[in-house]
Structure formats: structure tokens, C-alpha cells
TrEMBL record:
Its EC number is 6.3.2.13. Belongs to the MurCDEF family. MurE subfamily. It comes from Melioribacter roseus (strain DSM 23840 / JCM 17771 / VKM B-2668 / P3M-2). Signal peptide: none annotated. This is UDP-N-acetylmuramoyl-L-alanyl-D-glutamate--2,6-diaminopimelate ligase. ATP binds at residues 117-123. Residues 337-463 form the Mur ligase C-terminal domain. Residues 23-102 form the Mur ligase N-terminal catalytic domain. It catalyses: UDP-N-acetyl-alpha-D-muramoyl-L-alanyl-D-glutamate + meso-2,6-diaminopimelate + ATP = UDP-N-acetyl-alpha-D-muramoyl-L-alanyl-gamma-D-glutamyl-meso-2,6-diaminopimelate + ADP + phosphate + H(+). It is an enzyme of class 6 (ligase). InterPro entries: Mur-like_cat_sf, Mur_ligase_C, Mur_ligase_C_dom_sf, Mur_ligase_cen, Mur_ligase_N, MurE/MurF_N, UDP-N-AcMur-Glu-dNH2Pim_ligase. The modification N6-carboxylysine is found at residue 226. UDP-N-acetyl-alpha-D-muramoyl-L-alanyl-D-glutamate binds at residues 31, 159-160, 186, 194. Pathway: Cell wall biogenesis; peptidoglycan biosynthesis.
Length: 489
């Protein structure tokens, strides 16, 4: 695409240089991955400022740069490189707008379902992809575990990628024949304009509890960030919300979209009742327009009845036959690291991504609902570094009160001291039923070896992740692989 064609369709403050001569083949925010046909965006980040790398990008041949700080580099340097200088109000917002136009607004060419909430985003997105594909509709997925274009898997580092990566993925999905895409939409992504200019057909709200306070600072800010998704919905879209969450109505206040509610509430359009579950799966009933539908999923837990119902609602709103949707949910595979059961004789290991106080409590409630006090319950968990510190003692208290034995260990300490994180967790523990083992593999090993033959062991916090980040360095580590290793000894 010629740069001048792109500039004719976006908002800018100032353009210096000859845009007509420039051919743009890709968009980048990383000066290490550019060439002469790249359009480089200088983004002001939290740890570093992309404006510092404009010179590097120019040295690598970039001939067009978008920036919000016009004084970052003298105009003479742009002239020296025959480069176009494009000044915008906000580089992040511009990245979303430019990306949408550069890729031909792909979100308008596919049915896009956004899923937001503190918990359940990944599982709900997987339910949706499975539902669409089971009923003969090729689909993609953008999310925490991986990105998918049909059966093709692409690795991911963020729950919601940067806006140019989202549009690149959606464009590839459209070209690959995908009719639908389910997409996890994080509060960070919404607040940082990564989802701007996307055309959502559905937005699902799962729930909201305190999380990411290191970034949002207050719950109100967190809620406002989530609300952005519903504020941006057009009139022909649908907001599918959990009616049982006390903040649901606030999220859809003022939305142009049709509001559809699911949950146990009598006010729900898709009313959930008779939830039962075991280590074999979850059964429940959904009442919609005075008709009862019996559903089953292999996924375990009260919360998974809600996640499945959100997908069920979208399926019926899309006019897919209800029996087909029910079969699709029944056949949806286990989502990696989401209350995933690993067996070793009578002993059961549950791998779960629970990394907030509420998600840990819900996971342990699910375990206790299944086994009661008939089997011992062990919990192995830690807390991530460089993240919300306030949840650490709360999670310690919850784990101790709801488990027979707790192993407090390291999660992803990142740049923090692992033992300091553990000390903050232990401050919340009042019972003498815990052991501190900083090394995560050793903690999992001890929990498996020391527990009774019929024990249920919850390994919480990392779920699907196959790495551990210590001192900023990532090394391979999988809770599931480690559990299987020691179960089979």
C-alpha cells in the first residue's frame, strides 16, 4: 500500500516528507524487526519510550515513522534519510486506526466475539471456537494460551496482542476462510487502545473481581476499563452479560447494543439451574424462552456452567440449531490448564490458572464440592512478581483455610525476590498447615510424594504456562509435566 493512500484515511496532525513515493508492506513497533518498507510506530511505554529507537529504525532503512512527540528527533535527520515524519496526537490510538485501515478493516469481514472478565475468558473463547467449528463454521481464536487460525496455532505472549497484530491475525483469518473469531479482551488492552476500531458483533462479560491493581490502582478504574468494550459496541451487536455479577448492569449502561443476560437470576434470558459436577464433568440446565435445555461439558466446576452458557447463548443468537450447540459444548475439549485433571491411581492432580484471590477460592470451592471432607485436599501455589501485592496474604489465608495442607512456593517472581513474595503470602496464613518450598518443582514433588493415595492436589497459578520467569529470564517449566513426572515415579 502506498503511504499516501493510507494517510488519506487516517487522522494525523502533521506530515513532513514525500509520502507518495513510499510503499508500506508492514507495521511495526519494534525497531529490531523493521525494513525499508516498514511503517514504524514510536510508542511511549511504561518501561521504555519507543521514540528513543527512531534513529535505530531509520538506520535499518525505515522511511516512514509515526510519533507523538515531534521534538524526539530533529526534522533534519528525517530529511537526511528521506524519511516521512508523521505526527499524531496519540501513537497508541493511531496504531489501532492505521492498522485497521492498512489491513482493510478485517474485523468487519468476520463475526467477532469479544470476551472480557476477570475469570473465564479463555475457557469461554475456547467453547466458542469449538462450537463454531463443530457446527461447520471455520473459526479463529485470539487469546492467552495461543492464537489460532482454524487449526493453525500461533504462539502468543499477551492475552490481547497489540492492535497491529490483532488486525494482522484477523486479516489472515478472513483470507483463510474463517467466518468467526472469538477473542479474549483484557482490561489492559482496552485501556491501552489495542481494541480500538474493531467491529465486535458480540461482547461477553463473564465476571469481575479485584485484579491487576498494580496497573489500574482502583477497582473503579478496572471496571471502567472493562466498560470500554461495551461502550464501543454498535447497535446491531449484542452484549451477553452475566446477570449474577453485581457490576454487570454498570458495564452495559449506555451501550447501543442489545443486552442479553445469562445466569441463575430470574431476570436472565438464559437462566442456569440444577448445576452438578464431579471429576468427570459438569451437568446443568438452561432455560431460554420457556424451554429447558440439558447441557453437559467435560470441563469441571460451577463456573464452567456459566462459561458454557455464554457460548450457548451466542450459538442460539446466531440461529444455530440448539441441539447442535448442545452437542458442540459436550464435545468441547479440555482447555489446557483450566481445572485440568491429571490422574495417578486414586490420586488426582488439578492444574488451574487461578492466580487471584477469588479464582483460587472458586477453584478450592469446586474441589471441596466434589470431595467434601472424604479426601484430603492439598494446594500448591505462589504469587507472581511485579504484580498486585495486596492479594498475596489474602490468597495465603484462602489456601490455608480451604486446604488440609498447603505448599507455598514460587510462581513467576519476575524481577522480585521470590522469598519476599512468599513472606507476604505467609503473612495471611493463621493455621499451622503450610510448608514453604521456594523451588516450584520441589514443592510439587513433595506434595505428590507426601500426600495420601486418595488425595486431591490443586496446583494453582500457572495453568497452561510452560515457563517460569525468574530475574527476568524465562526457562521451560510446566506444572502439568512436573505433576505427571512425579505421579509416575
Amino acid at each position: 500500500m502506498k503511504l499516501n493512500e493510507l494517510l488519506n484515511n487516517v487522522r494525523v496532525k502533521q506530515v513532513t516528507g514525500n509520502a507518495e513515493e513510499k510503499e508500506i508492506t508492514n507495521i511495526s513497533i519494534d525497531s529490531r524487526n523493521v525494513n525499508e518498507n516498514s511503517l514504524f510506530f514510536a510508542i511511549e511505554g511504561f518501561k521504555t519510550d519507543g521514540h528513543k529507537f527512531i534513529q535505530d529504525a531509520l538506520n535499518k532503512g525505515v522511511r516512514a515513522v509515526v510519533l507523538q512527540n515531534p521534538a524526539a528527533l530533529p526534522d533534519q535527520i528525517f530529511e537526511h534519510y528521506s524519511a516521512v515524519k508523521i505526527v499524531v496526537e496519540d501513537s497508541r490510538k493511531a496504531l489501532a486506526e492505521f492498522s485497521d485501515r492498512f489491513f482493510g478493516s478485517p474485523s468487519k469481514k468476520i463475526k467477532l466475539v469479544g470476551v472480557t472478565g476477570t475469570k473465564g475468558k479463555t475457557t469461554t473463547a475456547f467453547f466458542l471456537k469449538s462450537l463454531f467449528e463443530y457446527t461447520g463454521r471455520k473459526a479463529g481464536l485470539i487469546g492467552t494460551i495461543a492464537n489460532y487460525i482454524g487449526d493453525e496455532e500461533l504462539k502468543t505472549m499477551l492475552t490481547t496482542p497489540q492492535s497491529h497484530e490483532i488486525n494482522f491475525l484477523l486479516d489472515r483469518m478472513v483470507k483463510a476462510g474463517c467466518r468467526y473469531c472469538s477473542m479474549e479482551v483484557s482490561s489492559h488492552a482496552l485501556d491501552l487502545h489495542r481494541a480500538d476500531y474493531l467491529d465486535f458483533d458480540y461482547a461477553i462479560f463473564t465476571n469481575i473481581t479485584s485484579d491487576h491493581m498494580d496497573y489500574h490502582l482502583t477497582f473503579d478504574n478496572y471496571l471502567k476499563a472493562k466498560k470500554i468494550l461495551f461502550d464501543m459496541l454498535p447497535e446491531n451487536a449484542a452484549a451477553v452479560i452475566n446477570a449474577d455479577d453485581p457490576n454487570a448492569n454498570e458495564l452495559v449502561r449506555g451501550t447501543k447494543a442489545k443486552v442479553v443476560k445469562y445466569g441463575a437470576s430470574e431476570k436472565a434470558d438464559f437462566r442456569i439451574k440444577e448445576i452438578t459436577y464431579s471429576l468427570e464433568g459438569t451437568d446443568f440446565v438452561v432455560v431460554y424462552k420457556n424451554k429447558e435445555y440439558k447441557l453437559h461439558t467435560k470441563l469441571i466446576g460451577h463456573f464452567n456452567a456459566y462459561n458454557a452458557t455464554a457460548a450457548f447463548a451466542v450459538g442460539l443468537l446466531e440461529s444455530i440449531d440448539a441441539d447442535e450447540v448442545i452437542r458442540a459444548i459436550k464435545n468441547s475439549p479440555q482447555v489446557p490448564g483450566r481445572f485440568e485433571v491429571v490422574s495417578g491411581g486414586e490420586k488426582k492432580i488439578i492444574i488451574d490458572y487461578a492466580h487471584t484471590a477469588d479464582s483460587l477460592m472458586q477453584a478450592l470451592k469446586a474441589v471441596r464440592n466434589i470431595v467434601g471432607n472424604s479426601r484430603p485436599v492439598y494446594t500448591v501455589f505462589g504469587c507472581g512478581g511485579d504484580r498486585d501485592r495486596s492479594k498475596r496474604p489474602i490468597m495465603g489465608r484462602i489456601a490455608s483455610e480451604m486446604s488440609d495442607k498447603v505448599f507455598v512456593t514460587s510462581d513467576n517472581p519476575r524481577t522480585e525476590n521470590p522469598s519476599a513474595i512468599i513472606d507476604e503470602i505467609v503473612q495471611g496464613i493463621k493455621k499451622d498447615n503450610y510448608t514453604v518450598i521456594e523451588n516450584r518443582e520441589e514443592a510439587i514433588k513433595k506434595a505428590i510424594q507426601m500426600s495420601e493415595k486418595d488425595a486431591v492436589i490443586l496446583i494453582a497459578g500457572k495453568g497452561h504456562e510452560n515457563y517460569q520467569e525468574i530475574n527476568g529470564v524465562r526457562t521451560h517449566f510446566s506444572d502439568k509435566e512436573t505433576a505427571v513426572k512425579y505421579l509416575n515415579l
